[in-house]
Amino acid sequence: MSAPRILVLGSYPAVNPRHGGQVRLSQIVRAYESSGFEVKQASFFPGHDFYTGSRTGPADVALSIPLLHDWRGRPNDWVEDVIAGDVAAANDSLVASLEKYAGHVELVHLEQPWLLPLVEKLRDRGRIGAFRLVYGSQNIEHELKRAILRQNHVSEQDEISEAVLALEQRCAAQASLVVAVTSEDAAVLAGWTSAPLVLAPNGIAPWTSTPEKRERWTKQLGNAPFALYVGSAHPPNVQGFCDCFGSSLARLSPVQRIVIAGHVSELIPKTPWFEEWKTLNARRTIAVGILSQEDLSALRDLAHMFILPVTAGGGSNLKTAEALYSGKHVVASPLAMRGFEKLMDLPGLRIASPGREFAAAVAASLDEAPRSGDDNARAQRESLTWQHTLRALCDAAGKTARP
Length: 403
Hints:
The protein folds into two domains: about 220 residues, Rossmann fold, CATH 3.40.50.2000; about 170 residues, Rossmann fold, CATH 3.40.50. The protein has 20 helices and 15 strands. The strands form three sheets. The chain has a seven-stranded parallel β-sheet, with helices on both faces. Strands 12-11-10-13-14-15 form a six-stranded parallel β-sheet, sandwiched between helices.
């Protein structure tokens, strides 16, 4: 019997993953390939430099930014994801190119709801076969979208959020298999579908760093213990950091440091929260920008602790998996532990409410001795690897391809 053929559709390139959604998408592709599927992968995404400046896949398409800012005839900068599927589906030449690339497939895996109109166009045209749909939800997206729109005072927040909800419900209703990252998300999705549901939590790929990279960063940062925060430009990453430390970083001592990496490190210093106590906050932070995986691995290995200041959003957080896997001290907000409840007793983990409690926990952890290895905890951490977390998805998809 031939291997199942599957087309995996995503909303950002998966070839050179940099933010969490890209990482999950790339790991799903790898998991399918390792499980014997014949995989074709294509992504349709906003043509921002962040994506177009990196390597992309052979069927990836950067969509026109102006087209993605047209919300029902009105300009809107907050709907790039919401209407990406409509923009892609309306371009017959793009659809035909995708069909030629994909060939005949038994399954289409749609990661996040945004490209459903494209999936529906493929189904209507019938040129890649009568495929079954696997829908993977990284969040309950309409809730997250509403929170972002409200935070930014977008006037059409109700209209846009309701459109996202309708899109999610259509995805779940049309799917032959639905994938959730947390049990909370699975409970919501179960109300929208009669299809089988599978839980495939976020995970990590074990990392290694080179002595050369560690030496370089030690020279730059010094030998004092530091906390590490890594995040993309996703607005809740910025807001979560500000919310979790109260009015400023004053609860850290003047010699304690937080190293901030990723695109979030460019945005936090520009917030009114940071500016209000700029001298104080700047003394306690080191922003290192967007880094290669090799540099990030070195920082993870050098860090005394990880911080997880999550105050909004659904699904589960990839950075939580990385922090817990590290074996270092970790301070997490309660929301950061969504999807990782079974690991809440790990040694070195402090769960603290945003504000005074969170800031005090970070300061206390920085003052403690470095964590040493623990065999029992190490066994628990192995459950966080992608090989483990995506196994149920691949098993279920195989059954869906051959009912």
